[in-house]
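Ticket reopened. Same input as before:
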Amino acid sequence: MTVPVVERTVVINNPQGLHARPAEMFARLALQFDSEIEVIRESLRVDAKSILHVLTLGAAQGTKLVLHARGGDATEALEALARLVDSDFATDETLSQESHG
Amino acid sequence: MKFIDFVSREAIRTCVEVEDKEQVIRSMATALLESEKIAEDQHESIVEAILKREELGSTGIGRGVAVPHTKHPSVTELVGNVAVSEHGVDFDSLDGEKVHLLFLLVSPPDRPGDHLRALENISRQLRDESFCRFLKQSQSPADVWKLLEEADNNQFV
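Engineering reply: fixed in the latest deploy. New output:
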């Protein structure tokens, strides 16, 4: 049986970009899945499960990122991560973070 | 963005042996105050804003590194400093490890791009294991500064 490989493109839309708090939310969510997940920005390819790696993307508003997952729950993983990005990381916590740093 | 663009040389501290997250953040903010990067009457407000930010989620980003930060209207440019703790500080990091290396950042509210570029620089450089290890082993602010300069000159990547 072949291991599922899934890819999808997302765009960072929140004005602050993929700063520490969104990066943490992103890595934390990615960690919940067994699949190997990578985030690709042009020639840069990083581990979605590491905040340190995600932050190296320096993804400002408008940045296009490709999410690449390989594993049994690849589809679910990318679905969840894309939903997080599409929501602009918009939980009440993030909104309050926008004003406080 | 380079380290020397936002790290205040006079505010670097090594051998910072404190009990907890609040103490290390407080001592780093005090170092910025002592090097006149932040105003005395804003010190407490900045410390509280950074602690409030930590309540939302730890800025411990893994590999023994944390980036406590806040936006604050009292600064006109991004200011930051570095602290090294040999024993480490509990920081509720995602990977559960104690934090030995901290970069504290205070940025003007209207400059999110600078903040993001500083985070990008810190995280990119720290992916280099030897750079990260050397920084944590630094015994003096001069050692830290030398390493930051070397990283800025691309000697690690």
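The CA atoms of residues 14 and 84 of chain B lie 5 Å apart. Chain B has a mean pLDDT of 95. Please confirm and we'll close it.
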